[in-house]
Each structure stands twice: as C-alpha cells, then as structure tokens.
Amino acid sequence: MLSMVERNIDELDTLLTQRVAPPPPRSNLSERIIEASLQSKPKRRSGFMQGLDGLADMFVLPRPAYALAAVLFLGVVGGFYYQVPVQDADDTYLDAYFLYMDDVAAGEEWL
Amino acid sequence: MSDIDQDDDEGLMARVNTGDHQAFSSLVRRHSERFYHVAYRMCGQQDEAEDIVQEAFLKLWHKPGSWNAERGAKFTTWFYRVVTNQALDFVRKKKPLAGGEAIERFVDESQNQVKKMQVAQEQDILEEAIQNLPERQKTALNLCFYEELSNKEAADIMGVGVKALESLLMRAKAGLRDELTRRNFIGLNEEGGNVEYG
Lengths: 111, 198
Hints:
The complex is a heterodimer. Chain A is an all-alpha fold.
C-alpha cells in the first residue's frame, strides 16, 4: 500500500504531465532571428587578440577546489625546501661583547 | 539535403566560428522552437520567450567564440544554459505573474464551457505554483520533466552534481505539493483518502 506522501506525489506527477504545452511562437521565429542576424556582422577578433584569449584560457581555473589544493601543495613543498638562515652562536657572542665595550668607551660609569 | 543539414551541431558551430551565416541559419531552424519552449516554461510569456531565444541566438552569432568546443560541452547543453540564464534574468527583472493572467491557455474546444473554465482555472493555479518556485528548483523541474533530459544532462546544464539536482527536484515537488494542497488543488482527507477538488 502506498504511503500518504507517495500517493500525493503520484497525484502531483499526474498533474505535472497535464501542464499545458507552450503555445507555438506567434511569428516565424527562426526567420525573424535569421533576419535580425543579417542586420549585424559578428565581431571577429584579430589574430593577436585571439592569441591573447588562448593564453588567458590556459590560466582558467575550472575547479576551485583543485586550485586551492595545488596552492596548499606548493606551499608545503616550498616550506619544506626553504632553509631558515641560522646565525652562528659565536657571532652572537661577539656582537654582544662589542656592544658592551662600546658602552664603556662612551664613558658611562658602572654602578 | 545539403551538407550543412547533415552536419551535427558542433560541426555547424565550427562553421559559425568562421562567420558562416548559412550554418548559423541551419542551427536556428533546427533549435529555435525547442529553446522557445524552454524560455516559455521559464517566463510564462510568449513575446518574452521569443525575445529571449532571439537574443540568445544573436549573442551566439556575435560572439561564437563563447562556445568552446575544446571544453567538451555539447552545443545543446551549453545553449540550454545560455537560454535558461537569459530567462532567469528576465524573470528577475519582471514582477511576479499576477494570478496566472499572463499564461496563455489552450483548452480542447470540444469541452463544454463550464469544464473549460474549470480546466483553465486549474491550469492557472498549477502554472502559478510552478512559476513561484525558487529559480533553481523551477529550472530543474522544467529541464527534467518537460524537456525530458536525463538527470545527468540537466545537472550539466545547471552546473551542479546529479545528487544536488535530485535534491532540487525533490524540493520542487515538495514545494508544489504543499502549495497545491494549501489551495485545495490536491490533498488528503483525515482518513488518508484523496480530497476531491474542483
């Protein structure tokens, strides 16, 4: 036995098939369109512009999710190969030492 | 039959791309009526549906490069999208239909006057309920139910997955059922039997 909802949907399907067909177009639609198209010429692009379009097409990103994944991947790979410049511990010590000497040379007294 | 008439749509589009007006004419003669039906189902007005189709074909003539064969889409799939988008733009700009006044009615002449009025009234209610559906639900319903496209084709045209399309269809039907039940057009009585209407 059909459920209440199924019975309703069946009835709806029957109704939808009874929707009136669109009336035929009033004028001869095809000929009207063809005539209108004769009034204007298509805009043809120059060879150079077509080349530019072709170039732009190469950069179309059809799938945003893939684009995001590619950027993340490049970021991870880039991060993996990037080496953080490390300062030698001796250099750090020397810098601090000369800083101290400069302060003394300026004539400041110690407490 | 000329060579052009034997060409498939994609072959004709390749010719249109080179400025071949005969190929364009052939495409128009082949498809204008089908796309007029689509536009009419979307906007419910004869003149506007004709204008929508004309505009879509003229755009195609002026900028044939907007269809790119290399992307692999069938011409009809792509053009369905152009026409439905154009029709939706039209519907957005226009006020909603008032009581189905703008819908043309074609009723069998052999029916008596009372029956005719009843059928016309029912058709108005149905048409109004369909026209008042959210845009995407209405598009899905029109493509699958009246254009008899497969779910896959309709999903491609709308740029959604098949599951999403099926969900749109279900929601469209549920919305219609609620609206038509509210207006006593279809419905169930308390015992679960069908309520008579009309």
